[in-house]
Design brief:
The protein is mainly α. It has one domain. Helices cover 72% and strands 0% of the residues. α3 packs antiparallel against α4. The longest helix has 26 residues.
Length: 265
């Protein structure tokens, strides 16, 4: 029982450290709105004329992009939260943590929880743009979106830890992240519908974990905005299927991430 309490306290400390670092970095909080604004109002406005016929003209492209931008925020925040593992290793802080009388599993789980919480915070900030785009969200929708963002954040934070745990340098981690994240993001259908795409793209999107995060966020966020008869144009699969797939990917990433973290020297 004493060991359990110590491990819970250790996991909480790691989680709290990440949350405090985010809370104190006000520039990071403010800048988290800059990229979504750039994508929505510049990229979105530029592509809107070309996508005007989507859904028979009943779907506003910036509204269609909004869940994708929300996913982008959660995705990149989640994965790059794992960069602190590489940073702490370079500056020796990780070595001090690893020799503490706390299970390494607890440390890894605390790290996953911290990254997921920070990603949720940034996702909530981006949700403030919804009224600007004419997207009205009910309390039930907000709660559902928060739950989906937590699951997406946990899945991608686990992937970040899995990739960061063996990376010796910041440069290598960033290069690996760009090599992995950008294809995953652009194949997810965040900025374009995955209906009628080439077969190879359809197959890759089916094994892309991010696809199962974009789809439910879009379905929930645009419910009541897009006419029901046109939701089939943008919805890929039932909401429950997306949730189950995200949970499966989260476990597939988290288990080896925790195992590899525990085997660090």
């Amino acid at each position: 029982m004493e060991n359990l309490k110590r491990n819970i306290k250790g996991a909480y400390t790691v989680w709290y450290r990440d949350v405090v670092r985010f809370r104190r970095d006000r520039m990071r909080i403010v800048s988290s709105l800059v990229m979504p604004v750039v994508y929505l109002f510049l990229f979105g406005s530029g592509l809107a004329p070309a996508m005007a016929e989507m859904g028979g003209g009943h779907i506003d492209f910036k509204q269609f992009m909004f869940p994708g931008v929300l996913t982008m925020t959660v995705l990149f925040t989640s994965v790059f939260s794992a960069v602190s593992i590489v940073w702490d290793r370079e500056f020796g802080f990780l070595k001090e943590v690893m020799v503490a009388p706390v299970s390494r599993v607890a440390i890894a789980l605390g790290k996953a929880a911290g990254g997921s919480t920070v990603a949720l915070f940034q996702g909530v900030i981006v949700l403030l743009l919804a009224p600007v785009l004419g997207i009205s969200l009910t309390i039930a929708q907000l709660i559902t979106l928060a739950g989906l963002m937590v699951l997406l954040a946990l899945m991608m934070t686990s992937l970040g830890i899995l990739l960061a745990v063996r990376q010796p340098s910041m440069e290598g981690f960033h290069m690996l992240m760009n090599f992995v994240l950008l294809p995953m993001f652009f194949l997810s259908g965040a900025f374009f519908p995955l209906r009628g795409v080439p077969i190879w793209m359809d197959l890759l999107s089916r094994v892309d974990p991010v696809t199962y995060g974009v789809d439910p966020l879009r379905q929930v966020a645009l419910r009541g905005v897009v006419p029901v008869q046109f939701m089939d144009v943008i919805a890929l699969r039932p909401l429950t299927v997306n949730v189950i797939m995200m949970a499966i990917f989260a476990v597939l990433f988290l288990v080896p991430a925790v195992w590899l973290f525990g085997r660090q020297d």
